[in-house]
Design brief:
Helices cover about 40% and strands about 15% of the residues. It is built from 8 helices and 7 strands, in the order αβαβαβαβαββαααβ. The protein is α/β, with parallel strands linked by helices. Bound molecules: zinc ion (ZN). This is Mycothiol S-conjugate amidase.
């Protein structure tokens, strides 16, 4: 029995306001661009929260990291326009900086209480072998902040409580939801490539092929597991090659003292 069914929570594509918290300026596109573009068709209000400034995300050497920060800000806004992002919020922590999870929680609680989303999305910090501290810290802090945003007595200095029913993690090793993004897969690739400082280089042919193969694999695995992935949603549009994005979607209640969440 899935607690999300018991609570009658809407499926991922039915939410009307979502906040996507990303460690770096391009993570939301890599993890969820296709799904977000579909959500825009469904008139969902989409907020991007970008935690770090991405100053170290380059293979080229920039004389001044501030120059790269500025370039990446423009790339992020252009990519967001392709997906229909409603608003951007920057936390401006240093990429790879020595901030802690605790430093992130109050600012995120504040944002969640201001925007009042019905879903939060972020990177899965429990992905085995994830070594980048920004991904681990941001994923953990987002989950914690989503949980505390509804608390009546915590963080009273940053707004009134707002309960967020569910959270979705991309970049997950334990997916329970597959979204068929076939109609928007090329838009996803375009949105990713908009981050030219990261992808407009000699590696792009290989990387783009990897993204394509991964999306096809995620679609096929999702379809094969329809029985165990009850939230899989597909569309019929006559396209032959099909692509998916996968997520771990949990009720907020599953983020605390809920051993079966890994199987949810
Ligand atoms: Zn990242």
């Amino acid at each position: 029995m899935n607690i999300r069914h018991v609570l009658q929570l809407p499926n991922l594509l039915e939410v009307k306001s979502i906040i996507c918290v990303q460690p770096h300026p391009d993570d939301n596109e890599v993890g969820a661009a296709g799904t977000l573009r579909i959500l825009k068709d469904h008139h969902c209000d989409i907020t991007f929260v970008t935690v770090t400034d991405g100053r170290h995300g380059t293979s080229a050497v920039f004389q001044n990291p501030e120059e790269l920060v500025s370039i990446r800000r423009k790339e992020r806004i252009r990519a967001g326009e392709l997906l229909g992002v409603t608003r951007h919020i920057e936390c401006n922590f240093a990429d790879g900086g020595n901030y802690t999870e605790q430093d992130l929680i109050a600012p995120l609680v504040h944002i969640f209480r201001e925007i009042k989303p019905d879903m939060v999305m972020t990177i899965d910090p429990w992905m085995p072998y994830e070594a980048h501290p920004d991904h681990v810290k941001v994923g953990h802090a987002t989950a914690t902040a989503a949980m505390f945003a509804g608390n009546l007595t915590m963080f009273q200095e940053v707004g009134h409580p707002h309960s967020i029913p569910q959270i979705a993690f991309y970049g997950t090793s334990y997916p329970n939801t597959m979204i068929d993004i076939t109609p928007y897969f090329e838009t996803k690739m375009q949105a990713i490539y908009t981050h030219e400082s990261q992808f407009a280089n000699e590696d792009w042919p290989l990387i783009s092929q990897f993204f394509r193969m991964q999306a096809a694999e995620q679609y096929n695995k999702g379809i094969q597991s329809m029985e165990t992935l009850p939230h899989a949603q597909t569309v019929q549009d006559g396209l032959v090659d099909r692509y998916g994005e996968v997520f771990k979607v949990l009720a907020l209640r599953e983020l605390h003292f809920f051993p079966n969440a890994i199987n949810s």
